[in-house]
Design brief:
This is Amidase. GO terms for molecular function: catalytic activity. This protein is about 35% helix and about 15% strand. The chain is of the alpha+beta class. The chain has 2 domains: about 10-245, Amidase signature (AS) enzymes (Alpha-Beta Complex); about 255-445, Amidase signature (AS) domain (Amidase signature (AS) enzymes). Strands 1-3-2-8-10-9-16-17-13-11-12 form an 11-stranded mixed β-sheet, sandwiched between helices. β2, α4 (about 110-115) and β3 form a beta-alpha-beta unit. α9 (about 290-315) packs across α10 (about 320-330) and α9 packs across α11 (about 335-360). The model has no long low-confidence stretch (mean pLDDT about 95).
Length: about 450
């Protein structure tokens, strides 16, 4: 009987394949069997690339038998949010609207780079339709459930990508983030997630949502795997090791206060305090006009997304999820002046956060969400003392930080009990390595990491 226990991390798995302890074919077949038999409990997968994945695995094993040097992620299976092109398959972006499109002629750019590093795509993963949401409640493909408690949200829109890693089904996955779509599900599912600097990783072959905000990035179960996948997708020939990249102690680290200190659950407050204590954080920083930054990010997203879809909405409106359709139509109707004002504010806000990184801090710490994952049958959070919709407000802390295009790493804080909690580490554009240095320290100190659900442990 095949062992379907959770796979080790990506780099450890690649080492076991390189040394002959396991074959790539065995790893891929076990992964496909796991996804086929176990994913029905959380609904993270939309399609399996079974034949193609096995062929690529056989090619990896053949190289090893020939004595060839294997690339760094040889034989490592990964999944992609259902908006990344995979050659020979139709990219649906979580919708039935695109089903009649021709198959993609080539992989998305970042998928190509991971393949070149030996990694093997095995599945597309569930998402909110056209990435418009924070819940991964999809009218066409179902709702992705949180592996730690299937009565709760996985978050979105990259919920399938986060849940598959959190459940132990995959060591790596890819998502996209416009207003928090990597950071929110990473936080609620308890995995590491990275929203890179805007424009750093190529987006070719990833179906767009809001072109001036979209980024693509990875999920993983440990910092080394997260860093490896990021640097490979960034086109690096060598993978820096966070452990030797430099000491976190030389960095100026501060906690974001004001907007980012309100509306927190008691467990989140304790998580923030424990991490700040471990990093000797004593200074706090406030960003100006955060509410306006959040509103601007929302308006830019709505306008760009709405106008992208408007031509198709005029002909196929009934094929959209009504909730998605109505928001896209509303965005398309926004006055041009409103969009321009939001973009002008964006330039000003970007200058403000750049000044903070120049004068006050190298890394900022903030909560990713208010607390634990909301229940599916009671999808609410408390903001300003009022119970409000979770789907509309889970981005309270992520949307403002989308606007300036800075890199943000989501840290799964280890708590003694209860559901996962996530924090955001924020740095200046292009300074992802600083985030990895802090994250690696927190992981090594035992304060952060990915806990497998009790059902998978």
């Amino acid at each position: 009987m095949r062992d379907l226990s959770p796979l080790p991390g990506a780099l450890d798995l690649a080492t076991s394949i390189r040394t002959g302890e396991r074959t790539a074919r065995d790893v891929v077949e076990a992964t496909l069997e796991t996804l086929s038999s176990k994913d029905r409990s959380i609904h993270s997968v939309t399609y399996l690339f079974s034949e193609e994945a096995c062929r690529q695995a056989d090619a990896v094993d053949a190289l090893r038998k020939q004595g060839k040097t294997l690339p760094p992620l040889a034989g490592v299976p990964f999944g992609v949010k259902d908006l990344f092109d995979i050659a020979g398959h139709v990219t649906t972006a979580g919708s039935i609207v695109l089903r009649s499109n021709p198959p993609a002629k080539q992989d998305a750019a970042v998928v190509q780079r991971l393949r070149q590093a030996g990694a093997i795509p095995v599945a597309t993963l569930n998402m909110d339709e056209f990435a418009y949401g924070f819940a991964t409640e999809n009218a066409h493909y179902g709702t992705t459930l949180n592996p730690h408690d299937t009565s709760r949200m996985a978050g979105g829109s990259s919920g399938g990508s986060a849940a598959a890693v959190a459940a132990g089904f995959l060591p790596l996955s890819l998502g996209s983030d416009t207003n928090g779509s990597i950071r929110i599900p990473a936080s609620l599912c308890g995995v590491w997630g990275l929203k890179p600097t805007f424009g750093r990783l190529p987006r070719e072959g990833a179906y767009p949502f809001a072109a001036s905000l979209d980024v693509v990035g990875p999920f993983a179960r440990n910092v080394s795997d997260l860093a490896a996948s990021f640097y490979i997708m960034d086109g690096c020939d060598r993978i820096p090791e966070p452990a030797v990249a430099g000491s976190w102690e030389t960095l100026r680290i501060a906690r974001l206060e004001g907007w980012f200190a309100d509306n927190l659950s008691k467990p989140m407050v304790r998580a923030l305090e424990s991490v700040c204590a471990a990093l000797d954080v004593t200074r706090t920083v406030s960003l100006p006009e955060v509410a306006t930054a959040r509103a601007s990010s929302f308006l830019i997203t709505a306008a760009e997304g709405g106008n992208l879809h408007l031509p198709r909405l005029k002909e196929q409106a009934d094929s959209y999820d009504p909730a998605t359709r109505d928001r896209l139509l509303a965005g398309a109707m926004l006055p041009a002046d409103t969009y321009l004002k939001a973009q002008r504010f964006r330039r000003w806000f970007r200058e403000q956060i750049h000044a903070v990184f120049r004068d006050e801090a190298d890394v900022l710490i903030a909560p990713a969400v208010m607390g634990e994952a909301p229940r599916l049958d009671e999808p609410t959070v408390t903001v300003g003392g009022k119970v409000v919709s979770a789907r509309a407000n889970l981005g309270l802390f992520t949307q403002p930080l989308s606007l300036p295009g800075v890199p943000v790493l989501t840290v799964p804080v280890l708590v003694s009990e209860g559901l996962p909690l996530g924090l955001q580490l924020v740095a200046a554009p292009g300074c992802e390595e600083k985030l990895f240095r802090v994250a690696w320290h927190l992981e090594r100190a035992g304060l952060a990491g990915c806990r497998l659900p009790k059902s998978a442990a």
